[in-house]
Amino acid sequence: MDQQLVSAAFPAAAASVSAARRFVRRVLTEWGMEFVTDDAVLATSELATNAVTYAGTSFEVCCRVEDDKVHVEVRDHHPTRRIAMPGLDASSGRGLPSTARLADSWGVTYDRLAKSVWFRLPAAYQNASGSYTQPLPLADSGAPPVLRPGSGEDWPAAEHVEDPFARAVETVRDVLGAEGAAVLLTERDGRLTLGASDGLAPEVRTGGLRVADLGPEGQRGVPWFLGDVPAESAAHPIASILAARSLAAAPLRAQGRTAGVVVAVSAEPGRFEQSDAERLGRIADEVALSLERARVGELERSWRGWLSFVAEASDLLAGTLDQERTMALVAQLVVPRLASWCAVYTVDEAGKARPAYTWHLDETRIDALRKLLDHADPVPAVDVPGPWTGFGSAPEPVRAEAGSLVTDLVYNFPLIARGRRIGTIVIGRPKQDRFLRGVIDLAEELSRRAALAIDNARLYSAQMAMSSALQRSLLPPAVPEIPGLEVAVVYEPAGERSEVGGDFYDVFNSVDENGRPCWRFAIGDVCGTGPEAAAVTGLARHALRILAAERLSVPEVLSRLNRLILGEGTRARLLTLLHGEISLAEDGDGVRLGLVSAGHPPALVLHPDGHVAEAVSPQPLLGVLDEVDFEIDTVELKRGQVLLCVTDGVTERRAGSRLLGDEQGLERLLGSCAGLSAGAVAARVQRAVRDFGPEPSGDDVALIALRVS
Amino acid sequence: MIAARGSIDLHSSDDLRERLTSLVDGGEERIVVDLTAVDFCDSSGLNVLVRAYKHARAHDAKLTVTGAYGRVENVLRTTGLDRFLIEGPPAGDTTAEV
């Protein structure tokens, strides 16, 4: 079948994991392979997480059907990065071990440019134990991920498997030569429901059967028989309901309890004796065994569905670091799967919990619910989940507006992150829908993850505020005006500004050796990121200004700065720096630049005809050895010429294995900028860097363009 | 002589760092890192080479690199590290000892 091969590519971003999952779910659903979807989605999720987190590259997901197997392959572009085995850490990816557990077979293929991890699942359902075809056992009804033993209508009834009950009644009729046979299943409320029947008289109605109708014999837990029952006998309701004059029966013992009964009936008296009852007992045991198998398979499937849900939830939660959005996400994960409504409370500075986000299945009731929660008792400050009844104290008009909400069953789950109670999740559903144990467990698990996600979002915004403040302090407040020279700068820190980058630039007023006004500029890149790199950045930037004020020449400044960095000892970092002095040309045409490139990507000069040349000769970067002397390179920049200085975030911008700076890439790019103003050159280079690869850049980008106007 | 392969970057540099440090600590006086099979070296890679170079000097040993080409040669040249890390004209069997 030619339709059975589909692939898609995803960028190296956290959001790609859920995109990959949606892709696999959609493809397998289109192919009618719902029964492996959960497993495939979960395994894909693990592998995609590994690709993004550990390989850090974009990846492709390819699904195909081959030899009755669904084959899914996740291919990243990091052939050498080893596969991580994060182990069974509950809060992160479960890694390959769980792929190994879910899949039929799996493996890793390396080639020169990529690594692909693949797994196979059976394309046809082969296990005779169960046949749930729902993608998640948690349907909108909030059905719990646990099996309800003995509940006939929930039993797997599918064409994939032979129904164990239908088989049983046939066997009973064959072996015992009975006219009719039935499997009756015990419900929690004591009713007996029909699991399967064969050959019963048409007038038989099993609807009203109850366990009590089995009589004292039927409740002893051993096979029994009734030899001769008078018609319409009040002493043996089971016989009269089944229109039997004689019957044999055996309990169906599954999961350590009596799950029901297997009955053989006859309209004739005296058809059965004790040996028939015992044979029936053996058949019942066989049925029970296949029920156990079904239950185990079922539990395993629910467990996988549960894992899928939790994986999905964790992923979604990991995808945002915005507090508001995280809470909205939590509420929408809960509703409608686990409850009809959900409120997320956060604790304010005074320790008071307030509803921060409220969501109801029926959007028109959200306002009433919010009002009710606002007027209800405060949610209890407990450390364990429990039922909550706090609506009683709300004033009558609020209760009236809330209608049936006031009688809802409500549970609260404390949000505890890093040992601190940061809020509560309150969930509710109408009182006639009980919360089943599975739902409570799931909500508790979710609340644990939600707590961490919400707290992460809070910390992240705090860190971000600090980082941007620090980053701002590392950049000059303004660029001075230089007569006849256009100056354009671009600065783009990597990522979402959560970490201070190592790139910096500066342009400032100075005085040359003859006491005439001049300007100095610098663009630099400290190896690494974070506070330690920022410390070196700060040192460098301030040293440049102070040493310039001391009238040190550019090479002297670099030598001094080199020694200052080395003086930092173990905190020293490598620094590449392009530093220069700008003075107005004596003949009035353009400027004279005295430059030193200490290990920095080369500065380029663009001539108006599009010709590009390197402006400086490379000299050692700073922070290696102190016995380095620097020499100045002098460049005359004439009218229409552009000097472009960049950091390696530009030249090492990646697209797969290609770098922007490969094969004179930057020279060619600058060559295409002839005739543009400094600002337009800077903007074009910036856009080219952004558009070069499908993934966002992992490095800071800084550039300075100078053009004589 | 130790040969490195692939990319030397943030993720792969730790192995190389450990390897080079242990060679110096093990008393080797002459270490040559063969970069012939290295196609990319970022600033963390340079950092490893610089640290190893300084570590070797502090122990009266000598660390150089050889075989750099393309991007790697370019980055060594741009950063001026070629002055420290690449020996002048190749002199016979300098790489045969380790």
From TrEMBL, chain A:
CDD domains: HATPase_RsbW-like (cd16936). This is SpoIIE family protein phosphatase. InterPro entries: Bact_Sigma-Reg, GAF, GAF-like_dom_sf, HATPase_C_sf, HATPase_dom, PPM-type-like_dom_sf, PPM-type_phosphatase-like_dom. Residues 160-301, 322-464 form the GAF domain. Keywords: Hydrolase. It comes from the Bacteria. It comes from Actinomadura alba. Residues 485-708 form the PPM-type phosphatase domain.
